[in-house]
Amino acid sequence: MKKQVIYFFGAILSTLFLLSWVSVNNKSNESYITPALDTSSTKAARVGKPISPDLFGIFFEDINYAADGGLYGELIQNRSFEYSQSDKDAWNNNRNWHSLTAWEFTTKGYGYGTISVETKSPLSANNPHYAVLNVEEEGREGVGLTNLGYDGIVIRAGEQYDFSVFVRQLSDKSIPLQVSLQNKSGTVFGEANFSTQTKDWKKYSAIITATHSDDSAKLVIVAKGKGKIAIDLVSLFPQKTFKNRANGLRPDIAQAIADLKPKFMRFPGGCLVHGDGLGNMYKWKNTIGPVEQRIEQRNIWNYHQSAGLGFFEYFQFCEDIGAKPVPIVAAAVSCQNSGGTWRIGGTGQRGLPLSEMKAYIQDILDLIEYANGPATSTWGAKRAAAGHPRPFNLEYLGVGNEDKITPEFRERFKLIYDAVRAKYPKITLVGTVGPGPAGEDYELGWKFADQLAIPVVDEHYYENPEWFLHNNLRYDTYDRSKSKVYIGEYASQGNSLYNALAEAVYMTAIERNGDVVRMASYAPLLARQNYTSWNPNLIYFTGVKVCPTVNYYVQQLFSTNQGDIYYSNIVSFPVKAGLRDSPLAVSCVKDSKTGDIILKLVNAGSIATQARADLSGFGQINPKASRTFLSGPPLAEDNLANPQNVVPETSDFEAKQSFVYDVPPYSLTIIRVKTNSNRKASH
Ligand code: AHR
After folding, report:
1. Which stretch of DSSP H or E encloses residue 617?
2. Out of 2.60.40.1180, 3.40.430.10, 1.10.10.410, 3.20.20.100, which CATH number does the structure's domain 2-54+564-673 have?
3. pLDDT tens for residues 64-103?
4. Annotated catalytic, 159?
5. Contact 262, 57 (CB under 8 A)
6. 167 lines ligand 1 (CB under 6 A)
7. Dist CA 269 CA 250 (whole Å)
8. DSSP letters along 329-355, please?
9. pTM (2 d.p.)
10. Ligand 1 centroid, distance to 371 Cα (angstroms)
């Protein structure tokens, strides 16, 4: 409610700005004014400047159940019994969160026994907890465990599911086990049977075909004989994962991400990278290899990371969607907010002891070898063993995530930076300049970046839409001789069309400054409904639905209409545009692969206007152009709980060398024109 009032006043303000421009500048509707920044002479401006080919990508962090219970295809929650009270901080304490969360002890048909969670003889020391089922009387239907998935398990009739479990027989006799998919009232929708074979840990697998569809099914494993067994890593995967990969991804969410056509993907975060205290730092080596040997850990967002979606899966996904991988490693310091520093005196930022830096740096060098080394190298061999002998072609590596720029940070960052540059000079390192668009860490971060000549630095900002309109000139004055910028996280604090258009205005400025801004990614990407610890997000989902927001469509329209050459002075408005606070913005880029000229026209205000485009410098124009248009109610939030269905629509557009286009209020228009232009950019 409060938010809507803010947006309402925001919209009124932007309207007033626009009205005042109209009265000052719109003396005659005939005179068109080129956006304020395009001041260079027409001829010179039309030469075009090369811009980053990697501009628009995605930021993935396991926040809001983005990985487990989200993109990762596993249907069993808490499959290794590793959930623990320590996953939660003091403010998120939850009595129902423990090693048997999402599990129920199942004793139907007069059976009885006990269930416990033990650690004495685990399947792997990395995965210490397992369930022990002691069946004293199996009754008619057996005694066992039921997993409830994430808000239930979604199954589809006729689909096949890969079930597997590790079992150790603790009593003498073999025990028959039955595993079934059931609906809430216990009707069986598919089952498999097997018997324990050994007193050692052994993996048992079966394919279960679902006979019915159900959005809230459960997986029931029961022992149908007396005795004692240990159970660990209970897994259920749909065979249909994204690109049918084993240990793969939920296809509908993965496809929504793929449809963004991101040029790069940052992973695994965010604050998740540097972690809540040194012990919580993300360690990539813990996340590769057989899933039963991966090391699970607390998620800084107050839940649990199974590490099933680990670095191999991230790299593989990047390759599958044509995105350059941008892994981020901690700069050997923990998050400055560790231990809830912002609420009470927490532990704050801590640096890894210097005596541990050698090993830590080696881990980072090993990551590069894992991604790029030959299959014969130590770490390249592990990648090959996972099924990918070819390198993943890593180009970028981020070090640090919006860290406080302290002497401890600087010392550790420099050690990492020097070591990576010495061994892998071709890797583009991305530094960090604090959590906000200005302030002490931003200043100190930039000073430090200047000193080290860090190739790219990571800026973050979550601000209101007016901030984005007000700051659309931010990069026009950046020193081109300094570090390039990766806007690693940004969002305008809402999922309304107005928010998305404010972001679109800003994205035209990113394109205009694509010579200094190398990459940009909206954040966060994903949120499971009812599990959000952060809003807004780009895509919301439940177990069955995936709902892209209007912000998603703006990202998609920019990403799928990227160019590599930027042209000034192609489009003009009757009022001044492209000024600080202006709701009007335009960009013109060329995609040199196709020769297409792409115009993006944004009106984040409530007044219709006209734009005049002059494409005469681009040679012959193919009149058969396309127009993609996004508009709708400006202030309503557009998310899963409240879908507005504001989606882009593409239609034919008749292009001419020079034309006037009516720009409706609250709209984004993309006009894509084919030319025979072979003009080169100036270098
Ligand atoms: O995107 C959510 C969080 O915002 C990220 O984890 C962190 O880097 C930033 O503060």
Report:
1. none
2. 2.60.40.1180
3. 999 999 999 999 999 999 999 999 887 887 888 999 999 9
4. no
5. yes
6. no
7. 19
8. E--SB--TTTTTTTTS------BPPGG
9. 0.93
10. 25
